[in-house]
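Table 4 source record.
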Amino acid sequence: MNTSLKNKTALVAGSTAGIGYATAKMMAEMGADVVLIARNAEKLNAVSLELKQISTGSHSVLKADFSDPEGLEKAVKAYFDEGGRADILVNNTGGPPGGPAHTAHKDEFRSAFEMHLICNHILATACIPSMRESGWGRIINVISTSVKQPLTNLGVSNTVRGAVANWAKTLSNELGPFGITVNNVLPGATHTGRLTSIAEAKAKKSDITPEEALRKMAEAVPLRRVAAPEEVAAGICFLASPAASYINGINLPVDGGRTGSL
């Protein structure tokens, strides 16, 4: 089975922490040249140096903030104007704050829509010409299991994630004829900074410790544990590989079986 990413260039968003960081490392190990996208220049440079110790690939950084779509658009345009290429795009950024949908302010929806769907679209449309030219491409969006089963107290996230999933499915139909696949990875509870924040919020609300809150999350999973970021990254990297050439337009849960629907 061919899972090599040698001679492929991968743009990985949110790549200085959590799932994005694990994905960038794994793709470098698989032979890809990785372009790290995040907002913190110091962390970007540190991860870039780490990747250069992992592989001999040509790794670089692209400083951009998903809360600033115009700035992201300028940064990615400059990358391609300077001769950059893209074979793989991993759209990934932190989720919106928790809370019920019915009490959320309209600006919360607007901000989340821009950070997730609009920024994903900016990156995808910038990468598509390069992919079309080579006749090969992979766009992978890291979303949430909420696109299959909405999660309690994540009203804004449930709404926006669903929009991203349908945008991706539409793109998969449009771009398939050009050899470009578009898929979504849906992480369940994963050991990241976001999960820690959610656990702390649950703990405060229920008057328990964050450790107890995490344990309750794990008990809701058939495998009785939460995922390591590398386990989600493995799903992303498989979909990015030549081995996944006939997988297009799907939602892949990586959740230990927690989602209650097929």
